Amino acid sequence: MIRKAGQSIENYRLLDTTLYVTLEPCPMCAGALLHSRVKRIVFGAPDLKAGAAGTVLNLFESQASYHYADVESGLLEAECRDQLQAFFKRRRKEIKQKKQEQRDTQMKGEE
Ligand SMILES: [Zn+2]
């Protein structure tokens, strides 16, 4: 989800915009966001492992940043977390299914 936003952001300079995301941006996304000069970032759930908007580190307030952005967190946090969990659950299922399919076609090839 964040990557998708990042991709569209890379194509534009989003001056005076607010980005809403479910999960706190990681350092890579934060870099892209700063680069695109998004004014304000609002996220739902904190990323406890790689959050770069205040949880693990805060690139948005770093002295090294060329541009600054306001960050707001905790918006619909529970809903965001649910959505993310459902997303990764679905992904795992898809990957498992794909592997099974590959195994099936391989077996057919060996017959
Ligand atoms: Zn990221």
Write the layout of secondary structure elements.
Elements: H1 2-10, E1 18-23, H2 27-36, E2 40-45, E3 70-73, H3 77-110
Parallel strand pairs: 1-2, 2-3
Descriptive keywords:
binds zinc ion; 111 residues; alpha/beta; 3 strands; 3-stranded parallel beta sheet
Bound small-molecule species: zinc ion
Radius of gyration: 18 Å
Taking the alpha carbons of the first and last residues, their distance comes to 41 Å
- Which percent range describes the beta-strand content? 5-15%
Stretches where pLDDT is under 50 for at least 5 consecutive residues are none
Helix content: 40-55%
Q: Looking across the biggest beta sheet, what order are the strands in?
A: 1-2-3
Structural class of the secondary elements?
alpha/beta
Total beta strand runs: 3
Biggest sheet layout: 3 strands, parallel
Structure explained in plain terms:
Helix content is 48%, strand content 14%. Helix 1 (2-10) runs parallel beside helix 2. A 3-stranded parallel beta sheet has the order 1-2-3. The chain has 3 helices and 3 strands, in the order αβαββα. It has 111 residues and is α/β, with parallel strands linked by helices. It has helices at residues 2-10, 27-36, 77-110; strands spanning 18-23, 40-45, 70-73. The chain is elongated, with a radius of gyration of 18 Å. It binds zinc ion. Residues 2, 25-26, 28-29 line the site of zinc ion.
